[in-house]
Design a protein that fits this description.
Blueprint (H helix, E strand, L loop, with lengths): L4 H16 L12 H8 L3 H13 L3 E4 L3 E4 L14 H5 L3 H7 L24 H11 L14 H13 L9 E4 L1 H13 L5 E6 L3 H9 L3 E8 L2 E2 L1 H11 L3 E4 L13 H14 L2 E5 L13 H5 L4 E6 L11 E4 L2 H15 L4 H12 L3 H25 L3 E2 L8 E5 L6 H9 L6 E2 L13 E5 H4 L2 H10 L9
Parallel strand pairs: 4-5, 4-7, 7-8, 8-9
Antiparallel strand pairs: 1-2, 3-10, 5-6, 9-10, 11-12, 12-14, 13-14
Helix pairs in contact: 1-3, 6-14, 8-9, 8-13, 10-11
């Protein structure tokens, strides 16, 4: 009897995943055929067929009289068996299209930025008029490679408020946090390198890394930060030298790293020579008294990324990178190669917003708005039967699952009929083909009654006992 192809594929897929995520290290002996027969209940021929598939794909090598071992080539999947870097990067594009859908008829429950009315007090129309009058000449020139100097001086003081000591020559302004990530990837990674990332994590980052030809390996995200034990094991087995993470208000889970976990993570990074890239794009939405890796490390092994997309205006596209002075110079050079310079006009506008006398009060009000929305959104979700991954006091995102909706992508497709757009959990995993019950929920939009009304249409009604 011929082995069942689907069964052989299942075994091969399970083993391949263990090899890819580092559970099975290079050179490690894999389970025997007899053991897998007992584990899966499949025939011996099915297990043999699964191993032959892994040998053909370069993940496994057979050693006569000894068994099957993880191949040295397993970290570099054969080109003929893998989609191109561009194809793999485009896995994230559908989700990005949804995030950029500004149709006012859509309720963007999975949106990545706050509702526009939360930021209306910044009075950009007034500030832009003033900037246009005093900065007209600068609009006809390229800006400084590092970015507008007065804004970098201001950021020096802002970072000091987070207990991060960085001089202006350690700060490079960018077109938002996304371009900052792109510059860091180009500067620190080479095609074929292995990058460690949060999982679930920031899906555009996965696309950038894959487009660059980098192998992406996930570190499980827990309610108090990355799984440090798994992080250390992966660093030791994959020899990865860069870890991309979010300490505060992590996207998509909304979780914050604990002080103890931050300290342990930095100890492992120091031991193995790992650079940690810390994306802090929601810093202004949170109280300052939260743990940050860069505050503990002072940019020795950390690279800090910030943004004003979520606290000033998304359309201005202003962010920054803070790093060791030598690395900052390299990052500025990469920025010049990719974009020549950033928009001094946009940077002057953000600088004017931050220097306005009313800005500290507006920031406090924004954080209070986030706190209220977080409490309200948590009540809405749990009232609909959701399980929450964690419950921070201030967050833009809540990560939740509904036991009655095991496939969040299917749920998202249903809700789109009502013009309610979710952010299904599958897209926040490294392999978007995996079914996930989890979704990212933006607290600013979950509180809209339209969301609960739409969800109630698809939640199964409880059966009532008969007479």
């Amino acid at each position: 009897m011929q082995p069942t192809l689907s069964n052989a594929n299942q075994v091969a897929s399970d083993l391949r995943q263990q090899i890819t995520d580092g559970t099975c290290a290079i050179g490690e002996r894999l389970p025997s055929i007899r053991r897998l027969v007992a584990q899966y209940g499949f025939s011996k021929n099915t297990i043999v067929d699964a191993y032959e598939r892994l040998i053909a794909s370069g993940h496994v090598e057979a050693r006569r009289g000894s068994g099957y071992y993880v191949s040295q080539r397993s970290a570099e999947p054969p080109a003929e068996d893998e989609p191109s870097s561009l194809d793999r990067a485009l896995d994230s594009v559908w989700m990005m299209r949804e995030q950029l859908n500004n149709d006012p008829q859509h309720l963007a429950v999975g949106h990545g930025i706050p509702p526009g009315q939360w930021l209306a007090d910044n009075r950009l129309e007034r500030i832009q008029q003033r900037v246009s009058r005093v900065a007209l000449e600068s609009m006809f020139q390229y800006g400084n490679p590092y970015g507008y100097r007065p804004l970098r001086d201001l950021l020096e003081r802002k970072l000091a408020g987070f207990s991060i000591q960085a001089r202006a020559n350690q700060i490079v302004l960018t077109f938002g946090a996304n371009e900052a990530l792109d510059i860091v990837v180009r500067c620190l990674m080479r095609p074929g390198d292995i990058a460690l990332v949060d999982e679930p994590g920031y899906y555009p980052l996965y696309g950038k890394l894959r487009l660059h030809g980098t192998t992406v390996v996930g570190v499980p995200r827990e309610a108090d930060g990355p799984d440090v034990a798994t992080f250390e094991r992966l660093v030791a087995t994959t020899k990865a030298k860069v870890f991309f993470t979010q300490s505060v208000g992590q996207n998509p889970t909304g979780s914050d790293i604990s002080p103890a976990k931050a300290f342990r993570l930095l100890q492992v990074a120091e031991k193995y020579g790992v650079t940690i890239v810390e994306n802090d794009a929601v810093a202004d939405l949170k109280p300052t008294a939260v743990s940050r890796l860069s505050s503990l490390d002072q940019l020795r092994r950390t690279v800090y990324i910030g943004s004003f997309t979520k606290s000033v205006a998304a359309a201005l596209r202003v962010g920054f990178i803070a790093a060791d002075a030598g690395l900052a110079e390299r990052l500025a050079d990469v920025k010049m190669l990719v974009h020549v310079s950033t928009s001094e006009y946009a940077e002057r506008t953000v600088d004017a917003v931050l220097r306005a006398p009313e800005h500290p009060r507006q920031l406090v009000q924004l954080q209070q708005q986030v706190e209220r929305a977080t409490r309200h959104a948590a009540k809405v979700l749990t009232g609909l039967g959701a399980n929450l991954f964690c419950t921070p006091s201030h967050t833009l995102y809540l990560w939740a699952e509904f036991p009655w909706a095991p496939d969040s992508l299917a749920l998202a497709k249903n809700l789109l009929k009502d013009k309610v757009a979710l952010a299904p959990g599958a897209f926040f995993g490294i392999d978007a083909r995996h079914v996930s019950a989890w979704s990212r929920y933006n607290v600013g939009y979950v509180v809209d009654p339209k969301f609960a009304r739409s969800m109630l249409q698809y939640r199964p009604r409880k059966s009532t006992p008969g007479p």
